[in-house]
Amino acid sequence: MATMVQETAAVREIREIREPEAPETRASEIRRHELAAFLRHRREHITPEQVGLPRGRRRRTPGLRREEVAQLSAVGVTWYTWLEQARDIQVSVQVLDALARTLLLDASERAHLFNLAGAVDPAPGAHCPSVTDAQRILLEQLEPLPACISNSRYDILAYNRTYGLLLCDLDAIAPVDRNCMVLCYTNPDWQAAIVQLEETMRLMAAKFRANMADHLGEPAWKMLLKRLTAESAAFREAWERHEVVGSRSKRKQFRNAHVGLLTLDHTDLWLGPHNGPRMVTYAPADEASRRGLERLRAIAVERELHRGGAPV
Prior knowledge:
Largest sheet: 5 strands, antiparallel
Strand content: 5-15%
Oligomer: single chain
Order of helices and strands: HHHHHHHEEHHHHHHEEEH
Number of helices: 14
Shape: elongated
Low-confidence stretches: 1-19
Mean pLDDT: 85
Distance between the termini: 75 Å
Radius of gyration: 25 Å
Helix content: 40-55%
Structural class: alpha+beta
């Protein structure tokens, strides 16, 4: 007579034959294994020196250790190990973003990482379907006035050539870093161009807090807040003030690296509902600034010819 254990095993075997694994389950398993292999490969091909770690004398692996990736990404070692073992665990976009930065992924590799994880990359520059061809033409036609299109999170989605050189060389900035908050609080060139930097920082933090009230819990907003908090002591100080202010147009002054002092009138042209996408424009407030913008546009055009490209 068959034992209960044998009968249970037989029933399970019959069930597995009658109920084959669902295609979506199999696809998910394949993606997890591909993700695990991709992470291992990238980890093994990054030297400690590339991420600012000492090599040490006892290191046997040529790349990074799992615990080093976990530490740099601010995740648990056990959890990251499970990820490389293709365990069925949930991965947030914040963790994926941290891993992409730690593993020094380029734009294509980052997109591949999020695709394998079945997640949508919320980072600036990952995708910007809201910018139309007509809007890009309008940006170009506004030159020499600096102009860009941004969203309420301060992602710079598109810009003309003059804006591209107004505060720093935006073409040299990675798309994922083209965010006014990130640049204002972490980019030395951007900071050097703002005449009233401290006031601007406080104002932007207050406006960001007001805008975030409509997006609480959204991954992209949480990810940006976490990055600013981690990378900038000035932002942490401004954020802790809990100041809130709405958007407003005002006169601004910039110390441009190419043409000197510019006094400009800033205006937001809303392209959709309030606090949605907007076109930011800067008009000269005096004749000297008008001439400065003309020279800046000429410099930008010459640079574009040498680079053989165009702004985003």
